Amino acid sequence: MPLELLPWLAIRRGRPVSPTGLGEGDQELRGLVSKALKDYGRLLLWDVDGIERGRPDLALYKRFEGKGLWVDEGVDSVGGLIDVLVAGAEVAVLNLKRFPSLRDIHIARELTEKLAVCVEETQGALTRDPLSRNMLAPDLFREALKAGVGKGVYLRGPGLQEAPEWVDALEEMELYSGPTKPVHIEDQAAWRAVVDVFELI
Questions:
Q1: pTM
Q2: Residue 65 is part of which domain span?
Q3: Residue 69: HSE in the Cβ half-sphere, 13 Å Cα cutoff
Q4: How many whole angstroms separate alpha carbon 3 and alpha carbon 6?
Q5: Which CB contacts under 8 angstroms, 24+ apart, belong to 13-21?
Q6: CATH of the domain at 194
Q7: pLDDT at residue 186 above 90?
Q8: What's the CA gap between 68 and 50, in Å, rounded?
Q9: Based on the structure, what is the number of domains in the chain?
Q10: Residue 72 is inside which H or E element, if any?
Q11: What is the mean pLDDT of residues 156-180?
């Protein structure tokens, strides 16, 4: 089965966030987004201003509407995810660290199919929902599948280059795992990988 990549780009104040700091500005940002979408057909956009300050870059979403943007902008309500889609995102990413309840995923799925669930194992609890605090990542993805959500993003903790075996076992879900360095891609058990856009372009 061929490897599928999901480029991943963080943005802040209208500029790309690279491993060395903030990029040059809007022109560089638009260039990176455009090239990633052209080369890979999709891009996971991590909108830091949306996540931390509630000020997402809606103009950027609109500019690339219909091109394949997956957007995590800190959605913490069902209404918020609809706003992301209306603004131009192709897929609204629900990060369980910020989304209040697993039960609300069922409500969200009734409204739209354009959803992906993100489980982030970088810091603290995997989910904001107190009723699911003790659940492990694969169980959270299975709950999303029960709700009818067929896309997922698994962001592993630092230093873990290889995806765990359970990622491949969730065959029913289009599940991307990372971040992965290009030099480690061939070693992946999983055949869908999240890769920092600066590692690809």
A1: 0.90
A2: 4-200
A3: 29
A4: 10
A5: 13/49, 14/57, 14/60, 16/197, 17/48, 18/198, 19/196, 19/198
A6: 3.20.20.70
A7: no
A8: 19
A9: 1
A10: strand 69-72
A11: 80
